[in-house]
Amino acid sequence: MQTFRIYIYILIISSFSFVSCGLFDKEINQDQRIGAFRMQLNAAKDSVITPEEKIEVFGAILSKISEDDVIFNINKKNNLKIDGLVLLCEEYVKLDNYEKALAISDSIISTDSLAAQGYCIRGCVYQTWGDDEKALPFYNKALSLNPAYPDAYYKRGLIYQAKDELEKALADYSMAIKYKLSYPVELYNNRGDIYISRGAYDEAVQSYMEAIKLDSLNSPAYRGRAEAYYMQKKKKEALADCNQAIRLDSANILAYITRACIYTSMKMYDNAVADYRTVISLDKQNERNIKAIAESAIKDLQPYSRISILQK
C-alpha cells in the first residue's frame, strides 16, 4: 500500500517534467497535462488501497491541479477538478462520512454551478445517507441542467419506486435506458419488479431477460423471472430459473421462497418444507421479517409431506 502511494506521488511530480518546445504549442502542452492528471486519478481509483489512502492521494492530485499554470483554459481545469472531487466524494461516502461528502459536493457546485454532476452527486450522498426527500430536488435540478443524464434518472427512479410512485419510476428507468446508463442490470431488475407488482408478467419477463443478457450470473434476475413465470403458470420454467438463482447465490432467500411456492403448487411438499427451513436458517435474526411466514408455511405443509414421499 505504502509503495503504491509513493508511486503516485512520484508520478505526480515526474509527469510534469516535460517542457514546451517548438514542436508543442501551448494548447498541446495543456492537453498533455490534463491527460497526465486523468491518468493519475484513474490509477488511484483502480488501485487496491484503502479509502483513507485514496482520499490522501486524490487530495494531493487536486492540489496540484489547482496550482497548475500550464492548464490555462478555466473550463477544462474546472472539469478536471470536478472529476477529482467526485472521486473524493465517493471515498467519503464509503467511509459513511456523509457530512464531509456533502461538503465536497458543495465544492463541486461552487466550481461550476451550471454542471449537473454536482447536484446529482449531492443527491446521491443524501440518498445513500437514507434521506430520499432531500435527495429528490437535487436530482430534479441535475436533470433541469442536463435532461440527458442517465444516472440522475436512475437514482430518482429508485426514490419513486420506494415511494410506490411506480409510473414515475418506470418513466425514469426508461429515460435511463434511453440515455444508456452505464450499469443497467439493476435497472432492468427493478423495472421487472415493478411490472410484477402491476401484473404485467410478459413485460417483467422481458426486463429480467435484458438483465440476464447483460449479466448471465445475476441471481436476482433469474429469481425475478422465476416469479413472473410462476404467475404465468409456467412452473417448469419457473423452477429452472429458481434452481439457477440458487446455484449462483446459495443465500438468495427470495429464490428459496419462490421455489417453495412452486414446489407447493406441484405438490412436492417435502421440497417446499426444506426450502422454508433454509429460509429460516438464512434469516435467523428475522431481519427480513419472514421467519413467521416460513414457520406458518411449514406448519401448514407438514401434514402433507408424507403423502408427497409416497407419491415419489
What is the strand and helix layout of this fold?
Layout: H1 2-14, H2 26-45, H3 51-67, H4 74-94, H5 98-111, H6 116-129, H7 132-145, H8 150-162, H9 166-178, H10 185-197, H11 201-214, H12 219-231, H13 235-248, H14 253-265, H15 269-282, H16 291-301, H17 305-311
Which term fits the overall shape? Answer: elongated
* Oligomer description: single chain
Q: Structural class, please? A: mainly alpha
DSSP summary, beta strand count: 0
Secondary-structure element string? HHHHHHHHHHHHHHHHH
User: What is the CA-based Rg, rounded?
Assistant: 26 Å
Overall pLDDT score? 90
Helix content: over 70%
- Low-pLDDT residue spans: 16-23, 307-312
The portion of residues forming beta strands comes to: under 5%
**First and last CA, distance:** 59 Å
Tally of helical runs: 17
Largest sheet: none
Plain-language structure description:
This protein is 76% helix and 0% strand. It is mainly alpha-helical. The protein has a domain of 97 residues. α10 runs antiparallel to α11.
Q: Could you give a quick summary of the protein structure above?
A:
This protein has 312 residues and is an all-alpha fold. The chain has helices at 2-14, 26-45, 51-67, 74-94, 98-111, 116-129, 132-145, 150-162, 166-178, 185-197, 201-214, 219-231, 235-248, 253-265, 269-282, 291-301, 305-311. The longest helix has 21 residues, at 74-94.
List its traits.
single chain; 312 residues; mainly alpha
